[in-house]
């Protein structure tokens, strides 16, 4: 049996207890319809931290033990399973959180496979990208345009698709105002997609560095959410708001900024004490995105219309990077990379 190195989680536990172990483990061969990816990079997502620390055990995640986390993965195809003809060994590819879907349900057959009830999530139900190699389904693997760097592209596969799908829920354009609340990796992508619609973008966050990056990425205005006067100045001014910060106080701020008749898109859980009808507002939840949307994200990146902001670390340092994420000490999206991987 061949082997590889991977970050494996046996039992969820607080990251301070270092529950991940970088160790030698089995390297399975791709089954029919699957391919193996020699991983170049895997983005570090807050949801990885949630799973590792055991926040989602009640929801059945992780579904296997041990499990290899990671769901924004890029690399080169290194082996093909039976029947896979769309890819060749050496192709640059990526995988998003949606690892597989049933392909037969009403959602899968109407281009909404992200809602498939039998969907499998990369690194939560099956092994993910914190490893030297990963198995993917060919049906949910995407060619990465040759002009894109594979380390910088990794976050396109979770923050990118998540932000794109959230903005895609809106019908906004020139003359409209969109406010983005929560400026981590996803928020920074959403600022760019919202700006591409021609709408005026207001970025709202509490970290000065994040506000600065948002301005560089096309936000017309930035508002420090810790400043009540600044928030009051944009009250009732946005045709649409998008929230990526899972806090009730942020939801409340977002509704304060949303115009009557406007739409709030939430890419995070939301709790509402009340939802008055007299403002005729709309709430739309958004979860990851479809294959079609993922391909659009890659096209926009290849055309230079959007970009990621990343810091790269060696794969073996995952625990240290996740601890920094838990402490709020990361400046931008962290990416774990395997040095020296080539086609
Ligand atoms: Zn993610
Ligand atoms: Zn399905």
From TrEMBL:
It comes from the Bacteria. Its EC number is 1.1.1.1. One of its GO terms (molecular function) is alcohol dehydrogenase (NAD+) activity. Belongs to the zinc-containing alcohol dehydrogenase family. GO terms for cellular component: cytoplasm. The lineage of its organism: Bacteria, Bacillati, Actinomycetota, Actinomycetes, Micrococcales. It comes from Mycetocola lacteus. Its cofactor is Zn(2+). Pfam families: ADH_N, ADH_zinc_N. It is an enzyme of class 1 (oxidoreductase). PANTHER family: ALCOHOL DEHYDROGENASE 1-RELATED (PTHR42940), VACUOLAR PROTEIN SORTING-ASSOCIATED PROTEIN 11 (PTHR42940:SF8). It catalyses: a secondary alcohol + NAD(+) = a ketone + NADH + H(+); a primary alcohol + NAD(+) = an aldehyde + NADH + H(+). SUPFAM superfamilies: GroES-like (SSF50129), NAD(P)-binding Rossmann-fold domains (SSF51735). This is alcohol dehydrogenase. Residues 16-336 form the Enoyl reductase (ER) domain. Keywords: Metal-binding, Oxidoreductase, Zinc.
